[in-house]
Amino acid sequence: MVAGLTGAFRSVEVMAEPLRHGQARVWFDDREWICPAHPLVRKGRARLLLRPESIRFSDQPGPWRLLKRRFDAGSFHIEAQNPRGERIHGFSAQNLPLDSATVELLPQHCWLLPEGPTASAEVCAPTLQ
């Protein structure tokens, strides 16, 4: 169910390249983004933790298929899935078609974790603000 998404985390696999000052370059939805990163992130695979606040869906054609949506407080709360089967939650100001959408990432609400046992929301979530 899409209701009550605030505080829910989802993670997706991305390729990453650490930068300075606790940030990393990531490739998500076929685009490059800069986001906060865990100190153990290395070049290669990583997990990008996303909150609903991290994602804005747009009506540009893209790989995301909408699974669920509901309208509340002036925006649509959406659950979507990419071709690899990864699901994320986010928002849109407009009612989007179900078959194709693009993601706009709000990096200040994301957190990049190293691949492996430390890539767990239960372990790292307390460090998120």
State which percent range the strand residues make up.
over 45%
Major beta-sheet overview = 5 strands, antiparallel
Radius of gyration: 14 Å
Low-confidence stretches: 1-6, 118-129
Helix content: under 10%
Q: What is the count of helical runs?
A: 1
Q: Alpha-carbon distance between the termini?
A: 24 Å
| Overall SS class | mainly beta
Order of helices and strands: EEEEEEEEEEH
Descriptive notes:
There is one protein chain. The chain has 129 residues and is mainly β. The chain has one domain (10-118). 3% of the residues lie in helices and 48% in strands. It is built from 1 helix and 10 strands; from the N terminus they run ββββββββββα. The chain has one helix at 121-124; strands at 10-18, 23-28, 31-36, 44-50, 55-58, 65-72, 75-81, 87-92, 102-105, 110-114. The strands form 3 sheets. Strands 3-2-1-4-10 form a 5-stranded antiparallel sheet, with no helix packed on it. Strands 6-7-8 form a 3-stranded antiparallel sheet, with no helix packed on it. Strands 5-9 form a two-stranded antiparallel ribbon. β6 and β7 (75-81) form a beta hairpin. It is elongated and about 40 Å long. The protein starts with 9 loop residues before the first strand and ends in a 5-residue tail after the last helix.
Summarize the structure.
By secondary structure, the chain is mostly beta strands.
What is the strand and helix layout of this fold?
Layout lengths: L9 E9 L4 E6 L2 E6 L7 E7 L4 E4 L6 E8 L2 E7 L5 E6 L9 E4 L4 E5 L6 H4 L5
Antiparallel strand pairs: 1-2, 1-4, 2-3, 4-10, 5-9, 6-7, 7-8
